Each structure stands twice: as C-alpha cells, then as structure tokens.
UniProtKB/TrEMBL annotation:
Highest rank taxon of the organism: Bacteria
Gene3D superfamilies: Cytochrome c-like domain
Domain Cytochrome c: 173-264
Keywords: Heme, Iron, Metal-binding
Species the sequence originates in: Mucilaginibacter sabulilitoris
Keyword Protein biosynthesis in record: no
Record keyword Transferase present: no
Protein name per the record: C-type cytochrome
PANTHER family according to UniProt: ALCOHOL DEHYDROGENASE CYTOCHROME C SUBUNIT (PTHR35008:SF8), BLL4482 PROTEIN-RELATED (PTHR35008)
Length: 323
C-alpha cells in the first residue's frame, strides 16, 4: 500500500505533494508560466536567445561535433530533462533558479555559484568538460536564466517549480517489475537496450538514451531512483502524460526508475568526476547509494528502498531527509 508520507514531504523543500498538486492544478491552474516571445530585440536579448538555443540544441552548438565548441560529451540536450528549455512545470523547472544561487550544495559540501551548478550538468548528465566561466556560452545561458527569473509569472502559490512528489511504498522499488513495465511503456521510443534513437542527421537524438556509454553518468541526480521517479510521473511516457494527467503510478515510476538505474543490469559512464560526493554523511540524499551512512541501512536499501524507514530514522535523529 502506498501512502503520502506527509511529514517527510513537508520537510523536504524540493517536492510537491502529488495529491495536492492534482487537486490545485485542476481547481486553479496556478502553474509557472513565462512568455519567451517577449525576449527583447536588443544586444542583451540576443544573448538571452542564444542561451535558450543552447538549452534546446545543446549538441548542435557545443556537442562532440558542435559548431561553436566541443564541450558536452554526448549528444543529449539540456531540454531533454529541463523540458521546454527549463520552462515546463514539473520537469526540473529552471524558471527561478537564477534567484537561488549561490547556494550550499550537499553533494559538493560547499557553496556553488550558478555557473558551477550549470557546469555540473555539462559534466555529469552530458559527460562533458566545463564551459569556461567567462565564455560566450556560459554567459548566454546565465543571461537566459536571469531573463526567465525576471520575467516569470510566479508567486508563493505557483506550482511546478518544484518536483512532483512520489509516495513511498512499503516495499523496495523492484527492478524486475520495472523491466516488465519498461517493455510495455518505454521500449518503443527508448529502445530495448535503452540506447534511444539517433536522429537521421546524427546531430542529436529523436529519443535520448537512458543507459549505456552515451547516457547520464553515475552520480548524476537522474541516477537516484526517487529523483528520476519524481520526473517520470510528470513527463513520461512522452505521448501519454502531462502534469495534470499522470500515467504511471508512483510505485510504477519507482520500479521503472529502479530498472533504468540498476547498475547490475545497465552500464553507464562512471569515471571522470574526481570531487568527493557528499563529504558530510549527515547531508547525503537518502536515495544516494554510496556509503558511509549515518544510519545502518545497506547500500541496497538506500538505492532501492524501502525509503520510509530511512526517512523516519533520520527524522527521529532530528535530521532532514532529502531525496
Ligand atoms: C539527464 C538529465 C539532465 C540533463 C541532460 C541536464 N540536466 Fe540539469 N539537472 C538535472 C537534474 C536531475 C537536476 C537536479 C534537479 C533536482 O534536484 O530537482 C539538474 C539541475 C540543474 C540545475 C540546478 C537546478 C536547481 O534548482 O538547483 C541547473 C542550473 C541545470 N541543471 C542546468 C542544466 C543545463 C544548462 C544543462 C545542459 C547543459 C542540463 N542541466 C542538462 C538533469 C539534467
Ligand atoms: C513516444 C516516445 C516516448 C516514450 C513512449 C517514452 N519516452 Fe522518454 N523521452 C522521449 C523524448 C522525445 C524525450 C526528450 C524530451 C524532450 O526533449 O522534451 C524523452 C526523455 C526521457 C528521459 C530524460 C532524458 C534521458 O534520456 O535521460 C527519460 C529518463 C525518459 N524519457 C524515460 C522514459 C521512460 C521511463 C518511459 C516509459 C515509462 C519513456 N521515457 C517513454 C520519448 C518517449
């Protein structure tokens, strides 16, 4: 039986209670919006527009064969995850991110600038090397994110800036059941081997890869099962779901995420990041699977769950479980 772990979802800042979301989005469409047609036609506007283009057509501009530089190591685009160039609700929305940095980041154990955080995504999901901080590309992405933040129609009630919450079942996420669900719901686009489908011109994908040498690397946020499931319920299957009409149940999304992120079944790039992840164990996301931990739950339980006992243990110690 799945149920919403109310005390945990309240404590955790990056999730929205799914039941509440559904109720309010139906009753009152208070979703994050921004009108990118209003980007000004001046020199700053040109940078904003190029920054937006970079998020939509990352591989074309700065991919392995990019026309403006070779930075990302695979042919995925930022918009594959931060959908509609970071403007879509519940799709790792980036509309207000410019306001939220510099920010203390538990994974790095230090305060990161927004540019450093952007480079984390260039390096991890996109397998790349960092964009120079004062180069045209980084400045343009920053200009775009600042413009989003300045232009967005948001207030304290706005929905879709945070991720959709998933309720934790009592059982662990099942990679075996996920495999079955993947074959039914995902193979037709992402392929039986998670390889996706390259576009005819080989510049980027029609359907991006989910695992293998060209997919997001280990240690990317997507590689955590809860984080991936939060995104899946609002975004996939591509042609069957919208944030107000979810298709997968929470438990199904967790099972599929467990299958995609099952390192025993699916290789993905693991080398290349040397910085220690989560140097402070008491700040580790509970679905991050590499010890040391402050609790006695196994690496397997941290990765696949059940997550409720872990979250409850953390709360009992006065610590905030994040995921
Ligand atoms: C494979 C999916 C994926 C791709 C591709 C990707 N990202 Fe991300 N990105 C994520 C995830 C997951 C997070 C963490 C979101 C969360 O914690 O809710 C994130 C976080 C971020 C953040 C910080 C958001 C915040 O609120 O702190 C920024 C900025 C960002 N990404 C920019 C980019 C840019 C620019 C690109 C392209 C160069 C990119 N990302 C490519 C998955 C991706
Ligand atoms: C009809 C085709 C289609 C189906 C079916 C589909 N996807 Fe996708 N998927 C896409 C497309 C297209 C994108 C890129 C989205 C964008 O750029 O806005 C995507 C992006 C993704 C991403 C983020 C990018 C990456 O490669 O890491 C994940 C994860 C994902 N899909 C998982 C799934 C899962 C799991 C299912 C089954 C429940 C599924 N998809 C079903 C077309 C599909």
């Amino acid at each position: 039986m799945a149920f919403i772990l109310a005390d945990v979802t309240q404590l955790t800042s990056c999730n929205e209670d799914r039941a509440a979301v559904l109720k309010t989005t139906v009753a009152n469409d208070n979703l994050v919006t921004v009108d990118t047609m209003k980007i000004p036609h001046d020199k700053l506007g040109d940078a904003v527009r190029y920054g937006r283009q970079l998020m939509l057509y990352t591989a074309y501009y700065i991919g392995p064969n990019g026309i403006n530089g070779h930075y990302t190591g695979n042919k995925m685009n930022c918009t594959n995850c931060h959908r509609d160039a970071g403007t879509r609700p519940y799709a790792f929305n980036l509309v207000t991110v410019f306001r939220n940095y510099p920010q203390y980041r538990a994974r790095e154990g230090r305060v990161l600038s927004l540019a450093e955080r952007i480079n984390n995504c260039v390096m991890r999901p996109n397998l790349g090397r960092p964009l120079p901080l004062d180069g045209r590309e980084m400045i343009s992405i920053m200009a775009y994110l600042k413009w989003l933040s300045d232009s967005a129609n948001v207030n304290s009630q706005t929905k879709g800036l945070k991720n959709m919450g998933v309720a934790f079942p009592d059982t662990a996420a099942s990679s075996a059941n996920g495999e079955r669900l993947y074959a039914i719901n995902c193979t037709r686009c992402h392929g039986a081997n998670g390889e996706g489908q390259m576009r005819f011109d080989e510049v980027t994908y029609t359907y991006p890869p989910l695992w293998g040498a060209k997919a997001y690397r280990q240690g990317s946020s997507m590689h955590r099962i809860v984080k991936l499931a939060q995104w899946l319920i609002a975004n996939m299957p591509y042609d069957k779901v919208t944030h107000y009409k979810p298709y997968l149940s929470d438990a199904e999304a967790l099972d599929i995420a467990a299958f995609i992120n099952d390192d025993k079944k699916h290789p993905r790039p693991s080398k290349g990041i040397t910085e220690i992840q989560y140097p402070h164990a008491e700040e580790k996301a509970i679905d991050y699977d590499k010890g040391p931990f402050i609790d006695s739950f196994s690496e397997t339980q941290h990765k696949f769950g059940p997550y409720k006992p872990i979250a409850q243990y953390w709360e009992s110690k006065g610590l905030k479980p994040t995921y």
